[in-house]
Amino acid sequence: MSWPVWSVDDVVAERPAVRVNQLGYLPGRPMRATLVSTATDPVPFTVVRDDGLVAQEGLSHPWPVRPEPTSGLPVHVLDLGDLHEGTFRVVASSSHSHPFRVAARLHADLRDDALRFFSLMRSSTEITAPGYDRPAGHPDTGVPAWTGTDAERLYPGWHDDGTYDVSGGWYDAGDYGKYVTSGAIAVWQLLAALDLVPDDARLADECRWQLSWLLRMQVPAGRPLAGLAFHRVHGTAWSPLPGQPHLDPTERVLHRPSTTAALHLAAAAAAGARHFRATDPAYAHRLEAAARSAYDAARLHPDLLPPDDHARYGGGPYDDSAVGDDFYWAAAELWLATGDHAYEREILRAPEHSADPFDDAGFDFHAVGAPAQLDLALHGSGLADHDRVVDSLRAGADRLLDVQTRQPWGQPYAPAGGWSWGSNGRILNNLVVLGTAHLVAGDTAYRDAVATGTDYLLGRNALGQSYVTGYGIDHSHRQRTRQFGHALDPALPPPPPGALAGGANSVPAPDFPYDQRLVGLPPQCCYLDEPTSEVTNDVCIRWNAPLVWVSTYLSR
């Protein structure tokens, strides 16, 4: 299948000049839009109700830097005022925005769909959801440790002749791999969302599904590198694109255990133990025991790092060359779960504890100092220097506020080195930092910043593109994914509502194809809603998880 030549000018011409949050705005929170216009003076605008009545009038604020560097566009910012509930459009320079709503609990459906995405990504179980039903994919009940020439070259000195039950868990992204370091931070964020709504049975069930898989990825006693966790499980070659999981012809294998996988398992399992202790003490005990043993095993093997295999063998490497932040995160979660002073001592003496983990580039699986400090600030009031941790969080959140105020699109993200693969996930992680700062400190500026930050993801951006399937008129719907591959094979279902696209990526990845149409474009414009654009349009549990957190936070 061929795709049309894409250019920024084409997209700008096709989309309304007035860019709004296509889902809408919450009453009492900031309501802003962005106008693409070459006018240098303020432009009059009106906000019109769906019954034709004018609800608001005003003048735009021309953005002083032209073109605006992240988008390459001349823009104005529109303050829509304080609108009451209803459906509206903005009219400026003879252009009509897409319609949008103002309503309380506006994000409730988004939150439910973003969470449902995880259920559809489940491995080793039949899916019965209408339109997405399929047989169980990848039983993963007798998966061997990888052997052979390639395995020996990648993991010299490692040999394990066992087979293991690693069933369950979620597929990570558009492929059928399951990765401990990506899967652990994803379930940690769902557990954090469970903090916000402790009685949510669906959310708790989804967390248990992934945590139970993590337990199976831990190497059992008596086996080589016992206590550590296998780093990943997937085929020895990439599975066909598109294709359903139960039809995947590739041979599944387990990759060598790693220090980082063990520490991420320890962190997630400890967080799970803390959450489930009141409702299921026996399950919480299993999680705590696994977390303790994984941490101890990592201390015995502190430098068993996952190598970068350049994605040659059917899955992503999820490599990470520094483990200090991983030890810090695991110790933080174990202390919060157990109160054991030995873990508190590890926290206090870690260099990462006095470091600043918050910046506008956003945290991710390979930089987990921020998750550690978020939970310590929120739950660790008994920590010896808790006030300092809270101050660190507030300082980080204040810097994100400053970044956001310097963007005419509302996103607290504009790294000087370029926009990374999965930039939408990083933006959401920055919104998690701001939301947590609000929960800890109560400053409503942080709360408002979370609401404003969602504007970018839902249409107030250079492309006028909502990046969440099913939300907004112009939304991503051809994400790069095997099982939701309708754009490549009409017999397959499309991406479900609530699936987040990875987003703009202005930094070509050396090991993955990068479309030459994007080279040299402004960062926000480096995106293609095409089913083969892995570096801009993949889906990933690690990006949908903060979408669940943010939409849960905004729905409270």
Gyration radius from CA atoms, angstroms: 23 Å
Tell me the major beta sheet: 6 strands, mixed
Number of helices: 16
| Arithmetic mean pLDDT | 96
What structural class do helix, strand and pairing data support? alpha+beta
What top-tier CATH class of the domain at 107-353 fits best? Mainly Alpha
In total, how many beta strands?
A: 17
In whole angstroms, the N-to-C terminal distance is 44 Å
Helix content: 25-40%
Low-confidence stretches: 1-6
CATH topology of the domain at 107-353: Glycosyltransferase
Q: How would the global form be characterised?
A: globular
GO molecular function, one term: hydrolase activity
Keywords: Carbohydrate metabolism, Glycosidase, Hydrolase, Polysaccharide degradation
Family: Belongs to the glycosyl hydrolase 9 (cellulase E) family.
Protein name: Glycoside hydrolase family 9 protein
Explain this structure to me?
- This protein is of the alpha+beta class and 556 residues long.
- It has a domain at 107-353: Glycosyltransferase.
- Helix content is 37%, strand content 10%.
- It has 16 helices and 17 strands.
- The protein has helices spanning 8-14, 108-120, 149-154, 180-196, 201-216, 259-276, 281-300, 324-338, 341-349, 351-354, 369-379, 386-405, 423-441, 444-457, 534-537, 541-555, and strands spanning 18-19, 24-25, 32-36, 44-49, 54-59, 61-62, 75-79, 86-92, 95-96, 100-102, 143-144, 163-164, 178-179, 229-230, 232-235, 252-254, 257-258.
- A hairpin with a 2-residue loop joins strand 8 and strand 9 (95-96).
- The protein starts with 7 loop residues before the first helix and ends with a helix.
- Mean pLDDT is 96; it is low at 1-6.
